[in-house]
Amino acid sequence: SGLVTSGFFPIVLQKSGKCLDHQGGTTDRGKVRLWECHGGPENLWTYDPSKKLIVSSFGWCLNADPVNGGSVYISRCDPNSANQRWDRDTVENTFKFRGNEAYCLDAHKPDTFYNGATVQIYRCGGASNQQWLFQRFPMEKVQLCRHSDCRSGGDTYRASVGHWNRMPHQIGNDGLTRVEIPPGYAFQYFEHEYFGGWNHMYGSQDVKLTLTFTGNDNDVVSSFRIRKLPEGNVKLCSHVECISGVFDAIVGEWSSMPSEIGNDQLSYVHIPQGYTFEYFEHDNFGGWSGKFGSCSDSFSLNLAMVGFDNVVSSFKIGLAC
Description:
This protein is mostly beta strands. It has no helices and 28 strands. Strands 5-4-1-12 form a four-stranded antiparallel sheet, with no helix packed on it. Strands 2-3-7-6 form a four-stranded antiparallel sheet, with no helix packed on it. Strand 2 (19-22) and strand 3 form a beta hairpin.
C-alpha cells in the first residue's frame, strides 16, 4: 500500500457538508468518522466500480459490520468480502452495502454537523444523512482568477473543498482578483497565510456567485477555505407569519437590508441547522448586535421576543460548525 493521491477525492455528506474521514492510515479497523473537509489524505477516497470497493488514499478499504447500526472502518482490501463491497447509486447519491442491501452508508443523524460524528451502516431511507457527494461523479470546483476577466492560461486555478493555507502558484500570494463559486459551496478568504487576519465568507445554495475584488480586498488574499454548504437557506420575514415580505439570504455580509424586507422591518428569521445569523442596529454593521445559530438544531428567531422587532439594519450569515 502506501500513500497515493492521484484520482482520490473527498466524499462529502449532503446534509452537513462534512467529509468522510479516516484515522490511523493503515491501522486495521481504523476508525471512520465525519470531519471538516480539509483536503488532506484522511479525506481522500476513490471508488472502484468493477470491484465495488471504496478505497482510502492509503490503499485500505471501507468495511462495515453487517448489522443495522454496524460500525464502519478501514481494513486491508479483500474483493471477496461482501462487507467491503458497495453499490454506488448516482441518482440517489447513496452507497448501498453489499453485505446486506437493506443498509446504506449513513452518518448518525443527531451529530452530522460535528467533527468526529459517527459513520455507520443503517437501513436505507434516502435521507440526506445517507446522501454522499463524490467529486468523481462529479463535484463542482471553485474557480480562482488573477484577472477580472478570468482569461485562460496560467492565471486561473480550479479548487475543490478543503483548506488552502497558501495561494496556489497559478494565482500567487496577494494575486486574487476574481472568484466564481458554484451553487452549494462557500468560499472563505483570509488576509494572511494560514488563515490569519481579517476574513470574509460567501456562498449560495441556489445560484452561482461571482466575487470581483476591488478596493481593500483586491490583491490581498493569502489563504482560503472551500466548504460544501449545509442544507437550507436562512429565511428573513418582515412579519412573524412569513406570509409576505420574505427573503432567502445567501451566506455573506449584508451592509443594508434587502428591499424585500426593508430597513428596520425585520420581525422573524428561520436559521437552518449549521448556519449563524448575526444582526446589527445600523447599516454597515454598526451599533448593538446579536447572534444566533447552532450545530445541533435549526432555530426560529422571533425578534419581538428578544426585544429587537423592526430595528435591524444589517446582518451577516455564516456557518456554525
